[in-house]
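Students often ask what a 'structure token' actually looks like in practice. Rather than answer in the abstract, let us consider AraC family transcriptional regulator, a protein of 310 residues. Its sequence is given first.
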Amino acid sequence: MLESNVSLDELRSLITRHAGRSGPAVGGLLLSAADKPSPPTATVAEPTLAVVAQGAKRLTLGDRIYDYGAGQYLVVSVGLPVTGQLAQASPERPFLGCGLTLSPAVIASLILEAGPAAHTREPGRRSETPRGVAVSDAPDDLLDAMVRMVRLLGRPADAPVLAPMIEREIHWRLLTGEQGATVRQIGLADSRLSHVGRAIRWIRDHHAEAIRVDDLAGISGMSASAFHRHFRAVTAMTPIQYQKRIRLQEARLLLLSGSRDVAAVGFTVGYDSASQFSREYRRLFGVPPGQDAARLRQQAGDLSCTPSPV
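Now compare that with the structural description of the same chain:
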């Protein structure tokens, strides 16, 4: 416990020092700092590791809620439409977090090099379809590796050489840790997660088109019933619900980027009915699209925190 506390203390110090400052990037490292809670924000989360050093966050995926705080980490294993918010943050104790983009290629390489040692330590879970999001307490070796990764922001001469090695170590700590079953699936071309991922990518690339579950099952190489079951296990949504989330989040981006014709945006993302678009948009985001876009534009220039990993 002492080592964990020491690592968290240094991680907090490093994030406070470097968050929001310009400088050379270090791999897929992300830092996040904020001095007040935030409202729920919808985004599409890519495969990512997020570690909280101080404060707390909440992530919602479909009907699942994930709360994670200081000393915990969250893993997203596939592109998912999620809603995230800062739950605990204040000027006295700001939210501090860091994250890393997860690499399927690095995971696949580690699995090949390590062989049986790369298998999760929870063999009883291997036959289950992994969920797309998981939360665990961060072990000391993972926190230590994250500290060394963030240190490189202040050591630009070391970063090109050391960052790839520490990145591999972080992936290894995840692969052999409590959420190893989920992380392992990211690197396997024939895993259930990768099969579902094919359908997810197709929906995201063709979100404005009508979809048929049978066609998505074919893309995934599964029967329709098996595909539906595994898709829901990973995403906490049906394929139609997933497509709707992607459509509405894409519409929000279009509105924020300057489009003021609400009906045209609805048609662009795949809605045939402007009223249905406005109704479903309000159901997800709480306000009508035009009002939401105006509020987001007003807030865009008044952000007090750096981007959050998830």
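One point worth highlighting: The longest strand covers residues 80-88. Ask yourself how you might have guessed this from the sequence alone, and why that guess would often be unreliable.
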